[in-house]
Each structure stands twice: as structure tokens, then as C-alpha cells.
Amino acid sequence: MAAQRNRREREVECTTVRLSPMRVLAVDHRGPYPTIGEGFKRLGALVGENRIDVSGSKWLAIFLDDPETVPAEDLRSLACVTVPEGLETPAGVPGVSIIVIPGGVYATGRHTGSYSGLPGAWNDLCGRWIPGNGLKPAAGMCFEIYVKGCDEVGDPGQCITDLYEPVESSE
Q: DSSP strand E in the chain: where?
């Protein structure tokens, strides 16, 4: 019974949503995906040094490579924060850009718990839910939005992360 309960607690509730494009300030990061925190430290410093108002913004990570096929040290990702139209990329800072995450249909799932559970949550979303619902990954960017980051909650088990994978019908 305990094993069944633990499995159910790990599963991610999934659905599809239509998103509008999101404009983000992005900092390049290379290396294992769990080390994206280094990119967020650089991004936080950049935001502070340039007095960029990010109140009400979303903090997210974009993952550009498949960790099943790319060596961990070569994985590319972006630490990001949403920004308004008109904000320019700070001058003279390498590895920083403004990009637009395309709008469209995304499969999404909410993970509650520590970041160590995110690989399992992605497996639930991409390996089980998407194909089980007649969908397949579409061209685009997969990303995580940190609804309640570990820096906001005292207990890592209370972190809330929303996962997004662009999808289309598999038919």
C-alpha cells in the first residue's frame, strides 16, 4: 500500500493549455540541468545591477537539449525572467539576450516538491501523459516556471514548479 501511495504522490496532474508568447531576459547556462541555479545567480545579479523591475515577473528555465542524448556537461539551458516590451538587453554582458518563447499549445504539469523530483515529473508528463493522450512533442521550447521557488519556501517539499512542453496531435 505504501508503494502505491508514493507512486500516486509522484504523479503529475497534467493538462493542455494555450499560451501567449512570453518575452524573457535570458542568461546562457551550460552543464547538467540541476546546476541551472548558477545561471539564476547570474541573472539575479544582472537584474539588480541594472535596476530591472521584475516585480510580478515569472522566473523560468528553458531546456534546449535532450538529456538522454546529450552529455550532461554539454547540456544547454537558459535562466530567464519575463520582461516587458521595450526593455533592451543590457549592453556589454556576454551570454545574455532577450528572447520570445512562442505561444501555442503546451502540455503542462504541476510538480510540488523538491527540485530533485523534477526528472520524474518530466518523465510523467512526456513519457506517460503526452503519448497517452494522443499528443506528441512539437517544435519549440520546453521550460519550467517556478511558481514557488525553494528560496521562497522554508521546506523544499513545498516548492511548486509548472512544466511546459509544446505539443501537437499525433494523428
A: 13-19, 22-30, 59-63, 76-82, 96-101, 104-112, 135-137, 142-148, 160-169
